[in-house]
Amino acid sequence: MSRKSNDNGRAYEFAYLILIEEMIGSVRKVNIERNSSFYASKNAWDRMSELEKHSFTESARAGIDTILELEPLILEENGDILTALIQPDSEGEVGDVRDIILTRDHISWTIGLSVKNNHFAVKHSRLSHRNDFAESWFGIECSPKYWSKIKPIFDYFKVQKDLGEFWRNLPNKSNDVYIPLLKAFILEVQTQYLNHGSKIPTRMVEYLLGNYDFYKLISLENKKITQTHTYNLRGSLNKAGSKNKPKIIIPRTNLPSRIIAMDFKPNSDNTVELYLDEGWSFSFRIHNASSKVEPSLKFDVQIIGMPSTILVLNTKW
Asked: Which of 79, 82, 89 is nearest to 114 (CA)?
């Protein structure tokens, strides 16, 4: 990720803190936790132009308007404090994709927001000669057959890295890298599914989307829309208050239990598509993360199909 993209993401998080304090503070006391992530986001915010700040603020206002319709417990009056904090990036590495956490101190209630600026990707994962992706994704080690299939590819990478070669100069990336590596990846997922059944698709989606329910809020700057996605996989979102119910009801979404198909995207040598039951589908595009050859490759994972129970709400600003 470029410095500018990183700054934009952090500044957009800070815009949410500003608007949470402004829009909710008139109803109840709001405590913004000043941790290291708060200051990193504030520093990014301070580097933004006034035009950028205005855009982020309007987008965040639209996002919070939607969240208030979904979560009446935010404004329910009982005198307690709402705490908001930005999570450190390290939480994403241990299965928590939420950027901002909201809690109330007198009741057992927590919601998480994943806020993204013009960004739809789910999770970035790596394949390398050391990275056991199956252990990370499924809690089950990759098979010896997988390691033997990818060894020649990463041996080739090591030679090219030692030569200081640039990725763009590799003569046949399709046949030497993309296709054999993705074939090994497909075979390993299918083998794990054959051996372990429904837990493989279930754990894959839990890995990609994290261990907690959350709202994903995406700023579509060109369209002046904030898009809210409701990931209520465990039923913890959208709770009614003692007096008020949510204005929009979110169904609970089922996790998948079957792999329907997994293959290369048509006319592509670097992207695999995965189709699961319950309406889930993903694409996995492999790419090099730097200009020079290094002994690992990165996945750009996108959701290309979601269950109808995941609501997508567009709020104009």
From this structure: 89
